[in-house]
Design a protein that fits this description.
heterodimer; A: about 190 residues; alpha+beta; five-stranded mixed beta sheet; 5 strands; elongated; disordered N terminus; B: about 180 residues; five-stranded antiparallel beta sheet; globular; binds zinc ion; DENR_C (chain A); cytoplasm (chain A); DENR_N (chain A)
């Protein structure tokens, strides 16, 4: 990373391997310009101690020096604000629910609808396909009455879907998944 | 170009292109970057790997291979390599360096003004004409910060030293950078 690349040549060039910041996805040296520097530093200090030392031991002085004369507090405030915003979004995400609903169509037949997965950045089409493959049944993305997307799977597979979601998208907290039965009448 | 962009809303469709189209795109990219890419084109775009063309709003096209966006262009303009590709092969493009003060503006989507390319921390070691695709590095950084097109030649940037020097097309942390393609 440190040595500058050679001049262009037509010889075979290997691609460089770069590790991006696990928190904000930027090259770590640019984390200081992102809104989440503190979190980025935490990540880097855990995952790449060498780069951390290179970047922040010298950088700290740099920042300190810059803070002395300039209007840094303003900037810090801005950053803090933005960090808080991101945190809030995360929190919102963590609070949103995934609903798995069993809907009776006739006495013996029912469908399972899954709602709210998109809040966790799940590609609904992909998910529908996955369900279809796993359960060997029809599965599609449809708009419901409120105009929101939901996945409808043929058959009663709520428990299986519950497990599958946990397995496939670990980002979805178990407590946020609700199972609902929507029966027309008691059996 | 990618200040606001999301696959869900802005991509109108994607197709795996015919091999003749794939060859044409490849030829155009070769033509455009010549020695910058000759040695690596087979690694970057293997002939046999299917190439996906994603059409987006405002006439932006993304060239995708193995779920990675490699290039993008506007109408039938020049192909720009994405930053992730440039980070792998930084020698593909001529590089201009902006001073440290310009970094945060570039990462907010601003075009690059001439003084940002001529001040003490900046460097222009190459000389290119107007309308060239260039990579932008930054004072004290190793990785490429942005990619754009020169609005005037490097000589004019030095001479005139005001107005926009490089029009930014794609920069770190813009929406294309954050885009994850999953087809
Ligand atoms: Zn970071």
């Amino acid at each position: 990373m440190a040595d500058s690349p050679d001049a262009p040549s037509s010889e075979h060039v290997q691609p460089r391997e770069i590790t991006y910041c696990g928190f904000c996805s930027l090259p770590p040296e640019y984390c200081e310009f992102g809104p989440t520097l503190e979190k980025c530093k935490q990540w880097l200090s855990k995952h790449d101690k060498v780069t951390y030392a290179i970047l922040y031991n010298t950088l700290e002085d740099h920042l300190a020096a810059a803070t002395l004369g300039e209007d840094k507090p303003e900037e810090d405030k801005k950053k803090a604000k933005e960090a808080a915003k991101i945190e809030k979004q995360m929190q919102k995400k963590m609070q949103s629910k995934v609903l798995i609903k069993r809907i009776e169509r006739t006495k013996r037949k029912c469908v399972t609808s899954v709602f709210g997965l998109e809040n966790f950045d799940v590609d609904l089409k992909k998910a529908a396909k996955l369900f279809a493959n796993k359960f060997a049944c029809g599965s599609s993305v449809t708009k419901n009455n409120q105009g929101n997307d939901e996945i409808v799977v043929q058959g009663d597979v709520s428990d299986e879907i519950f497990d599958l979601i946990l397995e496939h998208w670990p980002i979805v907290p178990e407590d946020n998944i609700d199972l609902i039965e929507d029966k027309k009448k008691g059996k | 170009m990618f200040k606001k962009f999301s696959v869900k809303e802005d991509v109108t469709g994607h197709t795996q292109v015919k091999s003749s189209v794939q060859r044409a795109i490849r030829a155009k990219i070769l033509e455009q970057y010549k020695e910058g890419i000759e040695g690596i084109i087979d690694d970057v775009m293997p002939k046999k790997t299917p190439l996906i063309l994603m059409r987006c709003h405002e006439h932006i096209n993304l060239i995708v291979m193995n779920n990675e966006v490699l290039f993008f262009n506007h109408f039938d303009g020049p192909y720009f390599p994405t930053l992730r590709l440039l980070h792998k092969y930084p020698n593909m493009l001529p590089r201009l360096q902006v001073d440290r003060g310009a970094i945060k503006f570039v990462m907010a989507g601003a075009n690059i003004m001439c003084p940002g390319l001529t001040s003490k921390g900046a460097r222009m070691d190459v000389s290119v004409p107007a309308d060239s695709v260039v990579a932008i590095t930054a004072e004290g950084k190793h990785e490429i910060l942005a990619v754009g097109t020169t609005k005037m030649s490097t000589d004019d940037i030095k001479r005139i030293n005001k107005n926009i020097g490089v029009e930014t097309a794609h920069y770190l942390n813009d929406c294309l950078w954050k885009t994850v393609v999953d087809i």
